[in-house]
Design brief:
Blueprint (H helix, E strand, L loop, with lengths): L1 H18 L22 E4 L6 E7 L4 E8 L7 E6 L10 E8 L2 E11 L2 E4 L6 E8 L5 E8 L6 E9 L2 E2 L2 E2 L6 H4 L2 E5 L1 E2 L9 E2 L16 H23 L1
Helix pairs in contact: 1-3
Keywords: Electron transport, Membrane, Signal, Transport
Main location: membrane
Subcellular location: Membrane
Length: 241
């Protein structure tokens, strides 16, 4: 019995450590927003720059509420999230940029007509409830609600982080691979089966709507990995017995 107990205990402890490892935290639904006060219907882990996007799309009034979270390139740097109505890159995007100003977090709107022109000003769509916050882990977060085109199914989104602010203006970001790849589509609606005639909107918090799953897929892969580890542990335990 003693020879069985020790290997079994070590095996179970190893499985517990594996399940509690940082990889397990990849499930987007478990992430906490720095200073977050709102609840959102969807969450996606963006593929670059250690960033996430929580959002709720309300098709009834064509509004999108978002919380974008990322770590700036430096403690006094900036983070940005944008929609590009006409293209897929940064040029032409309508951006929300957050940074520290005299020790307090602020978020401002920028119409980025080109990579060399970052001008603070009104965006091409309505924006409200602008707010910025920072967490103890160094991450910043942008909160906002904005108007999107009626019946929109997806948007071109861009996100970025930068090193600092000079004279109240964001400094240029790096052009590393992760920075250049920080763009993609944001799906607002969930496709339905071929037997249905229209897509299902990503919901606002309401019991009468279906919740669209916009997780990046890492959460499901982690759950599959966890199940596999438990099965492996159980088989090994039976072999030891």
């Amino acid at each position: 019995m003693e020879s069985l107990f020790c290997p079994s205990l070590i095996l179970l402890f190893s499985l517990w450590v594996a399940l509690m490892s940082p990889a397990h935290s990849l499930n987007c639904s478990t992430l906490k927003l720095p200073g977050g006060k709102k609840q959102y219907s969807n969450c996606t882990e963006l593929p670059t720059l250690n960033s996430t996007l929580h959002f709720t799309y309300d098709a009834t009034n064509s509004s999108l509420s978002i919380a974008f979270s990322a770590s700036p390139a430096n403690p006094n740097g900036w983070i940005a999230w944008a929609i590009n109505p006409t293209a897929t890159g940064m040029a032409g995007s309508q951006a929300l940029i957050a940074f520290k100003n005299n020790g307090s977090m602020v978020v401002k709107t920028y119409n980025i007509s080109s990579y060399s022109s970052i001008v603070e000003g009104k965006l091409s769509f309505d924006v409200w409830d602008l707010e910025a916050g920072a967490g103890n882990d160094g991450k910043m977060v942008i909160y906002s609600s904005l108007k999107v085109p009626a019946n929109a199914e997806k948007l071109n989104q861009v996100w970025q982080v930068g090193p600092g602010v000079s004279d109240g203006r964001p400094m240029k970001h790096e052009f590393a691979k992760a920075n250049l790849a920080s763009l993609g589509e944001l799906k607002l609606v969930e496709k339905v089966s071929s037997g249905s005639s229209s897509p299902t909107p990503s919901p606002s918090p309401s019991p009468s709507r279906q919740v669209a799953n916009n997780d990046s897929g890492d959460g499901s892969r982690v759950r599959e990995m966890s199940a596999g580890l438990w099965i492996l542990g159980l088989v090994s335990l039976l072999v030891l017995m």
